[in-house]
TrEMBL record:
This is Cyclase family protein. Its EC number is 3.5.-.-. SUPFAM superfamilies: Putative cyclase. It comes from Paractinoplanes globisporus. GO terms for molecular function: hydrolase activity. Gene3D superfamilies: Putative cyclase.
């Protein structure tokens, strides 16, 4: 797939969905989509990637200083203490023999910081993953079929960093609006010498998060951003990767590549390919190590919280090299 008709997002989405649909591939009852590619055999092989024992968190912070602006009620996390050292010192906790403690609570949208999009997150013309009716799958009670808890035990295996920002960007960063094509991904793979294949969890670094650290959040949440081109749909399907994550708010390039569209690549890859998408990951420290060592693959565990019926989940991905 090369050229895009900017005036026809619906036609392009339908064509890409038709070429890349995985509906029925793992049976009509499947709830794991591309996570089926990440098998026990893949995990055994990936475990051998732990050579030095150094680890990196790929999570942004979960606090009030995050990037969210309240779009569609997405706010930054609100952390509140329920019991504190002050309470203990005042002797008002009611515990015997001098013991005291602290407790806290957090309130947040599940997709306000580093997170997975689950298979119930995006629909195409009223259908969710594997051809199910969206209205039957996700209700006010949650996702009763493909809730994020269905993959809570399986997202661990070979991770591969594709540092597109370092390979192709000026100063290690791609500019906002830069559409990362399959050719860009393959060029990065070739320059790094890091193969990508079935069952892998791919982490794409654009460098936008690095820029936000330096200049402030700005419009990170929902504004212009580098990201994957709509034309990568075929690559995302054909490589048979298990998941892909980026350091941006919305995974795909923004503004989107059509005149009137909103996240059209999501509309193909989640409900049709069954691909898990990670957003707002922080690969910067890992990227420095990968560039220094020349090794871009690693053991990665990125389990979601098993929140019953959730269509996404916050995570703390850990890469170990």
């Amino acid at each position: 797939m090369t050229g895009l008709d900017r005036s026809d997002p619906e036609g392009a989405i339908a064509a890409a969905a038709g070429r890349n649909s995985n509906w029925g591939r793992w049976g009509g009852d499947d709830v794991r989509g591309t996570m089926n590619f990440l098998t026990p055999a893949h995990r055994r092989e990936a475990a051998a990637l732990i050579r030095r024992g150094v680890s990196f968190s790929l999570a942004q912070s979960f606090d009030m200083d995050g990037p969210q602006k309240g779009w569609r009620r997405r706010t930054n996390p609100v952390h509140t203490m329920l019991d504190t050292g002050t309470d203990a010192a005042a002797g008002i906790q009611g515990f015997p023999h001098g013991i005291g403690g602290a407790d806290d609570v957090i309130a947040m949208p599940l997709q306000c910081s580093t997170q997975w999009d689950g298979l119930g997150h995006i629909f195409d013309h009223g259908h969710s993953w594997n051809g199910r009716l969206a209205a039957d799958t996700v209700t006010s009670l949650g996702d009763n079929t493909t809730g994020i808890e269905t993959v809570a035990s399986v997202i661990a295996g070979r991770g591969v960093l594709l540092d597109v920002g370092r390979c192709l960007g000026m100063g290690g960063e791609l500019p906002d609006g830069f559409a990362v094509t399959a050719a860009h991904l393959e060029e990065t793979i070739a320059r790094q010498g890091s193969a990508v294949g079935r069952g892998d969890i791919v982490v794409v670094r654009t460098g936008q998060l690095s820029r936000c650290r330096r200049e402030g959040w700005g419009d990170y949440a929902g504004g212009p951003a580098p990201g994957l081109s709509f034309t990568t749909a075929d690559w995302l399907h054909d490589t048979e990767i298990a998941a892909i994550a980026t350091d941006t708010w919305g995974f795909e390039v923004r503004p989107n590549e059509f005149d009137d569209a909103f996240q059209p690549l999501h509309q193909v890859v989640i409900p049709h390919i069954g691909l898990f998408i990670g957003e707002m990951w922080d690969p910067d420290a890992l990227a420095v190590d990968c560039a220094a060592s020349g090794v871009y693959d690693f053991w990665l565990t990125a389990a979601p919280l098993p929140i019953t019926g959730a269509v996404g989940s916050p995570i703390n991905p850990i890469a170990v090299k």
